[in-house]
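Subject: design request, 296 residues
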């Protein structure tokens, strides 16, 4: 874009000052000391990038000769046509208003589109600088200056390079941000800290694990001994149950054996056919008794 003219309502020593028909390309402003060259340059910078407030070290340039502090710049652009940029002091550098050929207006976002990635430092160091600023080379060390020089040498537009830088910067913020939690690397680092904490806790319990393992081995040995004792007690219990079940029969046997010992006749020998002989004799005895009864 090219600067065509400006109008100062009130800025420093200037009031209701208008300058028009600026040439294309390089423009050199020459004048006596204190003529207002630096004031005009500061005015252009203030309208484009904001008025400094009292907290900043930059000069305020209040309207010493009346008028409203601020003014407007007129640009021509291949993309936007003729654009009037107007600004007055206020919060955050002052509200800016853009007016286009078709009568539509815009604000800060449209100004950023018009500047196509231009920053205040880049404008001061490359596109509009004073003789005093030209005498120092420190300004050329600024990152924005290097970006502009690289864009010019590579044939890439400043806006395209700035957009690429913004894309890379946003992607880096998505991956990692100091003090952040949501970026992927921050999230993984948080998980790593948790794992390390668990590892430290596990390392501290190694001695407890060894003691617990030894105690478990001792308890297993005691459990085996208890099982053996239980088997012995169970065997003895089964024997006692058997004795209790046979108690009545055993007492009967003991009584019978004692009665047997008190019998007057104890048979020491019994013939093989003794039972049969006893039955025959018993039958003969019964017949004799019947015959006796019949005789009577």
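Subject: RE: design request

Done. Sequence follows.
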């Amino acid at each position: 874009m090219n600067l065509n003219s400006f109008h100062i309502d009130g800025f420093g020593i200037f009031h209701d000052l208008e300058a028009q028909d600026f040439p294309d390309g390089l423009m050199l402003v020459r004048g006596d000391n204190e003529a207002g060259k630096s004031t005009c340059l500061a005015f252009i910078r203030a309208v484009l990038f904001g008025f400094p407030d009292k907290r900043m070290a930059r000069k305020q340039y209040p309207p010493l000769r009346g008028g409203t502090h601020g003014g407007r710049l007129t640009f021509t652009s291949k993309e936007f046509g003729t654009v009037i940029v107007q600004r007055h002091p206020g919060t955050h550098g002052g509200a800016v208003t853009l007016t286009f050929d078709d009568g539509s207006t815009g604000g800060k976002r449209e100004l950023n589109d018009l500047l196509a990635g231009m920053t205040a430092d880049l404008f001061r160091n490359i596109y509009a600088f004073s003789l005093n600023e030209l005498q120092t080379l420190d300004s050329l060390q600024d990152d924005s200056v290097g970006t502009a020089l690289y864009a010019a040498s590579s044939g890439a537009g400043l806006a395209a390079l700035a957009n690429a830088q913004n894309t890379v910067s946003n992607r880096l913020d998505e991956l990692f941000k100091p003090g952040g939690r949501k970026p992927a690397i921050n999230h993984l680092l948080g998980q790593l800290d948790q794992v390390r904490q668990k590892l430290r806790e596990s390392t501290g319990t190694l001695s407890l694990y060894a003691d617990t393992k030894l105690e478990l081995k001792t308890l297993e040995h005691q459990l085996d001994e208890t099982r053996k004792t239980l088997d012995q007690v169970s065997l003895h219990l089964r024997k006692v149950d058997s004795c209790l079940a046979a108690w009545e029969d055993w007492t009967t046997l003991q009584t019978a054996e004692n009665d047997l010992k008190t019998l007057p006749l104890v048979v020491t020998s019994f013939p093989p056919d003794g039972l049969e002989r006893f039955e025959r004799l018993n039958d003969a005895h019964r017949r004799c008794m019947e015959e006796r009864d019949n005789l009577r």
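The first helix runs from residue 37 to 49.
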